[in-house]
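Team,

Forwarding the record for the chain on the shared tracking sheet. I've put the sequence and predicted structure together so nobody has to dig through attachments.
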Amino acid sequence: MNSEPVALERALASFDALWSPRIIARVNDYDVRVAKVEGEHLWHAHDDTDEFFLVIEGELHISLREPAGEPTVRLPRGAAFTVPRGTEHKPYAPVPTAILLFEPTGTPSVGDRHDEVPDHVDATTGHELGS
C-alpha cells in the first residue's frame, strides 16, 4: 500500500473483472476493497465476521436466508448495509455496479460456507490494486 490518496474512480477503472475485489487500503486488520459486479454471486456465509457493503454506482440486491424467509435488501447508489456474521446471503446486481467492501484481511470473497463457485466469481481474499 502506498501513502497517496486513492481515487475510487481511478481504482475502479484499473480493472475489468467482475466479482473480483481489489484491495485499495488497509485499516488496522481490515481490508477496504472495491469490486465491479453484475448478475449473481452465490449463496455464502462468513461464520466469524460481518460483511459491509457500500454501493458506489449502480444497484445491489442482497438476499438473506433467515428463519422467517429470504428477504432481499435493495441498495441504490450511496446506500450501505452490513450482513451479520453467520447469515447466508447472495448478492445480485441487476445493472453494472461498483461496490466498496470492508472486512477483515484474509476474508474469502465466497465466505466460509458456500454453494459451488461459478466460473464468473473469483474466489479470492482480494487482489492488490493494479494486479
